Automatic annotation (TrEMBL):
HAMAP family referenced in this protein's UniProt entry, alphabetically: Trp_synth_alpha
One GO cellular component term noted in the UniProt record for this chain: cytosol
Keywords assigned by UniProt, alphabetized: Amino-acid biosynthesis, Aromatic amino acid biosynthesis, Lyase, Tryptophan biosynthesis
Family matches, as PANTHER family: TRYPTOPHAN SYNTHASE ALPHA CHAIN, CHLOROPLASTIC, TRYPTOPHAN SYNTHASE, ALPHA CHAIN
EC class: lyase
Pathway(s) this gene product operates in, as recorded in its UniProt entry: Amino-acid biosynthesis; L-tryptophan biosynthesis; L-tryptophan from chorismate: step 5/5
Record-listed E.C. numbers: 4.2.1.20
Name listed for the protein in its UniProt record: Tryptophan synthase alpha chain
InterPro entries (UniProt xref): Aldolase_TIM, RibuloseP-bd_barrel, Trp_synthase_alpha_AS, Trp_synthase_suA
Single Gene Ontology MF annotation: tryptophan synthase activity
Domain of life where this protein originates: Bacteria
Length: 266
């Protein structure tokens, strides 16, 4: 069986001796076509792997920036079918693309149906912030059936036993949340992140991505020193949220991604 697009990406970045750059944007923000243009801009500027966020009205992890973007996407009528379509357009750029979603929308849509349609669109997997492996039997089966990677989260509070269990169940990479709390840009990266990644290294050789807080190239460089992937979300969303118009937003996005990519390659 051939390697998944995500596994192939990490094989390549490890051979290049650098971290992968992962960029997150909510589907349908600021609107459907602009979200596609934004993803294409990110990939052109250096994002290696795209996270397409499924806008959700009841987030438990998203900070105010991503909540504001998701609210706008929902107000604009973004639906799950749009998320899958946008993920497909993202995958068409050549960058492996995953959907990041809370579990309730997937369960309501139908787990196998969601997996089938995402795989058919070219998606590579799911990041599931509120789904833990010991409750993921249906998702494990659907992901196996449709060749999708399962990206589970771990936190600084995770026990060594849970780290090992989560790493065993995960595929593609493991998402290490570097801070306790909601997402958002931060002045400094978390001091807990290197320790968490070090603990994971003791139980798995699967790639580890670190997210929550990175907002510039210097921080990306710092995280790239100990992680396999640098995950950026709120800072990218802020480029579009603060822009006076679409052209300015895309230009700001390109500048930030260029800086972040230089950070992971230094």
């Amino acid at each position: 069986m051939s390697a998944s697009p995500i596994t192939a990406l990490f094989d390549r970045t490890r051979a290049e001796d650098r971290a992968a750059l992962v960029g997150y944007l909510p589907a349908g923000f600021p609107d459907k076509e602009l979200s596609i243009a934004a993803i294409e801009t990110m990939v052109e500027a250096g994002v290696d792997l795209v996270e397409v966020g499924l806008p959700y009205s009841d987030p438990v992890m998203d900070g105010p920036t991503i909540q504001a973007a998701a609210d706008r996407a929902l107000a604009g009528g973004t639906r799950i079918s749009d998320v899958i379509e946008i993920a497909g357009r993202s995958a068409a750029t050549g960058a492996p693309t995953v959907v990041m979603t809370y579990w309730n929308p997937v369960e309501r849509y139908g787990v196998d149906r969601f997996a089938l349609e995402l795989a058919a669109a070219g998606g590579a997997g799911l990041i599931t912030p509120d789904m833990i492996p010991d409750e993921a039997e249906e998702w494990m089966a659907a992901s196996e059936a449709h060749g999708l990677d399962r990206i589970f989260l771990v936190a600084p509070s995770s026990s060594d036993e849970r780290l090992a269990m989560t790493a065993e169940a995960a595929s593609g990479f493991i998402y290490a949340t570097a801070v306790m709390g909601v997402t958002g840009q931060r002045e400094q990266t978390s001091s807990l992140a290197p320790e968490l990644v070090g603990r994971l290294r003791k139980v798995t050789d699967k790639p580890v991505g670190v997210g929550l807080g990175v907002s510039n190239g210097a921080q990306a460089h710092e995280v790239a020193g100990f992680a396999d992937a640098v995950i950026v979300g709120s800072a990218l969303v802020r480029c579009l949220l603060d822009a006076p118009d679409a052209e300015a937003g895309l230009a700001a996005l390109r500048r930030l991604v260029t800086d972040l990519r230089a950070g992971v390659e230094r």
